[in-house]
């Protein structure tokens, strides 16, 4: 008779040793690790040659090889069979007796009496057996109602059918999602993949209720909304801000078999601002904590970094798109408002005077935006402190005074037109608010708010104009030096390379000292046409902070994502400076991906070899041009410094000439002494003029070499 398999499974438990048969026929012992009651299988594990192995075995095979484990069930089955046999035998004997009585006693009354007597005696003699039958009967009914045992083939067919149904449901959902995408966009397939990816994320944006972080180096990434211009170009949004500290960029790519997919790279920063965040929220987590350190005697630094058109000036200065420019919502004005709020407290009331300076750094030159863009000199004094000589400081007493100064400075800031932006900021704007103790000239604290120039590469401006190329080279050089200074600050390095650019020279006070604090606001564009620039900006910010996603995951910080092509970006891989165009080959690479299994077999195509050779030549020309620019600017500074020194000494020389000449007006003056003094004065002047002339000649040669390199420079 067949019994319910659940009875057999009840005889087994996890950790019990059982015998199993291998595919080669060998039988050995294993340990039960899991019992699956649904499909009636047992998962076992064993150790073989110091290696742990496992297998899933059907219940039938376990029963066949281990009959001794199920003796209780088989014995019960044997007893039930014996009882059933006895009952059937007694029933047959009873039937035979009744038939015999019917045959020998045809009288009806006698037949009824005998029947009653036999029934009574049968009930007395078979009471025990009938009760046993009643006990066994429910078990037989349960066995009759259970499903028959399914073979492996039937189970496999059912599993395949269930998987087929799941695939149908999945394909139907995918088809409905594709119908929701605008198919007029050329990259609608990528857009559908990105939408599907975002639906798997649990979005949790940053709010004002989040706690501020007191960090030495803070990195905040802000995503701007996609513009109408980008929508008209059929751009798609390739940037996702899933929570308060993660950024995911989706790189559309095509394989060699033309299969499209997205490469998702994840970055983690201190703060991540989505496109709906306003300037007040950005200020709350970036500049506001640094204002408190200003009243502790620190020199904090806040700067906005990103490509042209990513929203740097909007974040720092305010909304410039309207006719009546509103500067009240920029970080400049919000910082000033917060500073005066602290000054009105009883703790600081009447103790400090507030001064503002506003200048721009164009290439290597510094111009005062408060003094008709007068050129300023950046010098080091006898204490090795960097001084911006000649800058104009404006004392302010209200926020309205600060707003007026910002408006005045922004109106004369240098800007240009590139393919990236019609009103591109081509200079670094440095707005500084300084606190000084009452009746003193010594600075107590100074906060520097910087709107950096656009970080796009010179090749991306689509021009061979020498001025534009020179601007891009100097901008990238200063950004690279700024990054290295911040990284050295984060490592507590003894040497800070602030002399690498004019920008870092001016900001030297923000990198020296134990209380220095720096905040970077990385502005990124969401459009697919700017995906390279966005990736470079995120990598720049990642190297500034040097937050490794893999290390953070080991600490328990994870971003839940389930996409097939996820690729977490780390700062250790591809450690090149593409943010300042240090490696053009990676930026020029094709979007097609070569499978790793074929990379060592394929030979370079002649056309690809020629392209690489052309890129190498262009890269060498570009580096040569950058070196020529650096040399010409260095000689320019030396020449201007010498010329300025000669002009400063000129009044003294005139006085010397006047003194010698006045001696000749005497009645009996010494003519020999007069001639000797005049010759000595002329020789002294001649030496100064000769040195100045030689420097001017070197400067002219350097500028000529720079022009020659600019002509040789070509962009593909």
UniProtKB/TrEMBL annotation:
Which keywords accompany this UniProt record? ATP-binding, Cell cycle, Cell division, Coiled coil, Cytoplasm, Cytoskeleton, Microtubule, Mitosis, Motor protein, Nucleotide-binding
* Ranges of compositional bias, category Acidic residues: 572-581
> What name goes with this protein?
Kinesin-like protein
A single GO BP annotation from the record?
A: microtubule depolymerization
Q: Where is the Kinesin motor domain?
A: 216-547
Q: Which GO terms describe its cellular component?
A: microtubule
Gene source species: Adineta steineri
**To which protein family does this belong?**
Belongs to the TRAFAC class myosin-kinesin ATPase superfamily. Kinesin family. KIN-13 subfamily.
Q: Which CDD domains match?
A: KISc_KIF2_like
GO MF terms held by the record: ATP binding; microtubule binding; microtubule motor activity
Binding-site positions, ATP: 306-313
Q: Where is the composition biased (Low complexity)?
A: 607-618
Ranges of biased composition (kind: Polar residues) = 95-105, 120-148
Please indicate which superkingdom the organism of origin belongs to: Eukaryota
SUPFAM superfamilies recorded: P-loop containing nucleoside triphosphate hydrolases
Location(s), subcellular: Cytoplasm, Cytoskeleton
The record's annotation in Pfam families points to: KIF2A-like_1st, Kinesin
Q: Where does the record place the region Disordered?
A: 86-149, 562-581, 587-618
Q: Where is the composition biased (Basic and acidic residues)?
A: 562-571
């Amino acid at each position: 008779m067949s019994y319910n398999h659940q009875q057999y499974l009840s005889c087994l438990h996890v950790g019990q040793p059982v015998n199993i048969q291998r595919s080669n026929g060998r039988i050995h012992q294993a340990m039960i690790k899991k019992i699956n009651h649904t499909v009636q299988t047992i998962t076992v594990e064993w150790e073989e040659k110091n290696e742990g192995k496992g297998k899933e075995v059907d219940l039938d095979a376990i029963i066949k090889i281990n009959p001794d484990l199920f003796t209780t069930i088989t014995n019960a089955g044997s007893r039930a069979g014996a009882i059933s046999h006895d009952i059937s035998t007694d029933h047959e004997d009873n039937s035979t007796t009744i038939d015999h009585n019917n045959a020998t006693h045809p009288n009806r009354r006698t037949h009824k009496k005998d029947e009653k007597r036999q029934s009574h005696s049968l009930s007395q003699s078979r009471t025990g057996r009938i009760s046993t039958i009643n006990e066994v009967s429910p078990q037989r009914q349960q066995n009759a109602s259970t499903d028959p045992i399914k073979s492996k083939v039937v189970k496999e067919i059912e599993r395949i059918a269930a998987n087929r149904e799941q695939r149908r449901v999945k394909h139907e959902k995918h088809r409905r999602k594709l119908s929701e995408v605008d198919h007029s966009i050329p990259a609608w397939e990528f857009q559908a993949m990105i939408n599907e990816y975002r639906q798997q994320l649990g979005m949790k944006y940053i709010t004002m209720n989040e706690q501020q972080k007191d960090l030495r180096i803070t990195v905040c990434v802000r995503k701007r909304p996609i513009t109408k211009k980008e929508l008209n170009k059929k751009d798609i949004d390739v940037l996702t801000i899933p929570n308060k500290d993660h950024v995911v960029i989706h790189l559309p790519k095509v394989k060699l078999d033309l299969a499209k997919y997205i490469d998702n790279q994840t970055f983690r920063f201190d703060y991540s601002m989505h496109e709906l965040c306003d300037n007040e929220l950005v200020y709350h987590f970036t500049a506001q904590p640094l204002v408190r350190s200003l009243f502790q005697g620190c020199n904090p630094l806040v700067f906005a970094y990103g490509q042209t058109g990513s929203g740097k000036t909007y974040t720092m200065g305010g909304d410039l798109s309207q006719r009546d420019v509103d500067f009240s919502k920029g970080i400049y004005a919000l910082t000033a408002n917060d500073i005066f709020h602290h000054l009105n407290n009883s703790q600081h009331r009447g103790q400090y005077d507030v001064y503002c300076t506003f200048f721009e750094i164009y290439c290597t030159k510094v111009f005062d935006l408060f003094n008709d863009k007068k050129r300023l000199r950046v010098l080091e004094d006898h204490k090795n402190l960097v001084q911006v000589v000649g800058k104009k400081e404006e004392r302010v007493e209200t926020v309205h005074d600060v707003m007026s100064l910002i408006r005045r400075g922004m109106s004369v800031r240098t800007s240009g037109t590139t393919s990236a932006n019609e009103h591109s900021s081509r200079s670094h704007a440095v707005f500084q608010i300084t606190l000084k103790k009452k009746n003193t000239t010594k600075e107590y604290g100074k906060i520097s708010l910087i709107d950096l120039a656009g970080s796009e590469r010179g090749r991306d401006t689509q021009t061979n104009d020498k001025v534009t190329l020179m601007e891009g080279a100097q901008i990238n050089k200063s950004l690279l030096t700024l990054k290295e200074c911040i990284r050295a600050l984060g490592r507590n390095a003894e040497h800070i390379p602030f002399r690498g650019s004019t920008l870092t020279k001016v900001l030297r006070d923000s990198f020296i000292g134990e209380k220095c604090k720096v905040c970077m606001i990385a502005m990124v564009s969401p459009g697919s046409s700017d995906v390279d620039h966005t990736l470079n900006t995120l990598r720049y910010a990642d190297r500034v902070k040097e937050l490794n996603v893999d290390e953070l995951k080991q600490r328990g910080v994870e971003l839940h994502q389930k996409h097939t092509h996820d690729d977490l970006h780390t700062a250790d891989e591809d450690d090149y400076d593409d943010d300042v165009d240090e490696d053009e080959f990676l930026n020029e690479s094709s979007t097609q991906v070569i499978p790793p299994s074929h990379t060592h077999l394929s030979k370079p195509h002649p056309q690809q070899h020629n392209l690489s050779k052309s890129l190498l030549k262009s890269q060498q020309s570009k580096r040569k041009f950058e070196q020529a620019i650096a040399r010409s600017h260095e000689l320019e500074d030396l020449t201007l410094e010498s010329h300025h020194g000669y002009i400063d000494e000129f009044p003294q020389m005139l006085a010397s000439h006047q003194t010698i000449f006045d001696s000749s007006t005497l009645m009996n003056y010494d003519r020999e002494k007069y001639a000797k003094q005049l010759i000595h004065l002329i020789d002294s002047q001649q030496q100064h003029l000769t040195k100045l002339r030689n420097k001017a000649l070197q400067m002219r040669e350097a500028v000529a070499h720079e022009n020659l390199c600019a002509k040789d420079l070509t962009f593909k």
